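Notes to self after the call with IL:
- keep both proteins in one doc
- input above output, always
- annotate only the second one for now

Protein 1:
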Amino acid sequence: MKWLSLYPDEHIYSGLIRYRIRMGQGVMSDKRFFSHNGLPYQWFRSQVPLNHLMRETLDIITPEPDKQFALRLNHTPFAPWLLSLPGSMAPHELKEASHRPNTEENPFQVDRRWKYCPNCMQIHKAKFGVSYWRATHQLPGALICEEHGTPLHSHDELRYLAFKLPHHYLHKSQALVLEANWQHDWQSFIYRMSRQLQSNPEWARNVAHCMKSYLGLERVIKHTHRVRFGGFFECMKEDLGQDCLAGLFTRFARGNGRQPNILWLTLSGYSQGKGLRHPLYWLACLFWLRSALPELAFLHEHRSDHGS
């Protein structure tokens, strides 16, 4: 797609919306637009950078693997997925999570609607003449704009993106609300974690080892270690609190049935599911250990440019 261009931190799907407008293809039906440009027909979702639809979309935009990786890393909320990188795989080889699109997000409680910052929208319109959807605002659990420190906005229509840019929702969207204390701490955590992984994708390789070392666990986890994991997870639940786990995982939000041991599912390597472990598992564990692991010191560094 020769004429596709992206602004700083613009989500790839936002770029496709602007491309459609720019090329005068707005009169086409959605299906015709996708077919005309050789793109897979899809509903644009905000937090699925590794499904097969994104992979096929990137294949059309550019055939070069390095450029595809740069686009995924800088123009989707992909960075946290590097925490799930298999040990034998290079970061640029991570292209698909092997989940069916309709089940990939089901176990997770975070808001998956598209979100935008009204302040960013006004700045973008003044600078570029158009608003656009920022990739970092779609990070799991992001409720405020890191740059402005103000709540992000969303709307019930934004579960999927219907070829509209943020300014279309300015007068009908609502500000997102940080209802729990843990959500305030999560904002800085998720933005800084994503930035760390964007700047150094290889950093994710040592995360599991650092966590196991801190907890006194063997490098290779066996089923016989599950009892120890039970004790650790009780500590994790007590430290994070029920509100936090319920805000991240659907099973905890429902409050009925068996609640999974998040730490075991993350570190053990044992799972009945297929595909990569969703990064929210890793993020929850790191959020728990954010003040304990020396490797997470960057989470506590002062950033004068954002006043945080």
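Protein 2 (the one to annotate):
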Amino acid sequence: MTSLGTFYTRTWELFGLLWMLRDVEQVSLIPHHQTVTAGADITPRLRTITLDSYPGDSSGNISPELSMVTRPLRKPSATRIARFPPLPADVSHSKRYYFYGWHLDWDWLLNLAPSNNYPSRYTTYNTYDGILYLRAISGYEHIYPANGLVENREEFDGEQRGVGTDRMIDLLVVWVNKRDLAHRRPTELQLAKLIKTFRAKPRWFKDGRPRKYFDEYEM
């Protein structure tokens, strides 16, 4: 399949997953996801999303001073809000929001629920079960897939895709510097549990879409 064909085919995967995150009772949307029969050998068909190229504007960012510096804690608190590293320096004039999260491996996400004996909501395991598992073990519900803009193309060589000059990777995110969503922030303990599961700390990623297209995520 051509790269453009792959691009549009993989677009449906994340749109379907985001729709399930919006309404978990939409069981009829399962065919839009990679699935595997419970207990069977898991051989996922990876599908992801990115869009074309967009114009952008410069409004709506949260200022850098709202970012909080990470400080070591002896024991993560179940009530204190997690502290994040400072937002990147260009946040005040960037045409895209910034996500705090992880680079997403769809293979890993699909295997996550069955490998931890977490029951599927459906007759077959799918990537949404992996997100439900992450929410369940962390106690934090605002975990979403998103696109990240690749700014260093050597870092994610072989995993990038896109149309035009932009290149994207897939993410799982826990926070975005969008003003009306900034209150969604994990506690120290919730973030610590996610870090343990991912076996890596989250980091900043610039959104793969300009701000005017952010609402297509259905977060």
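Annotation: Confidence is low (pLDDT under 50) at residues 4-9, 23-70. Residues 3-22 form the longest helix (20 residues).
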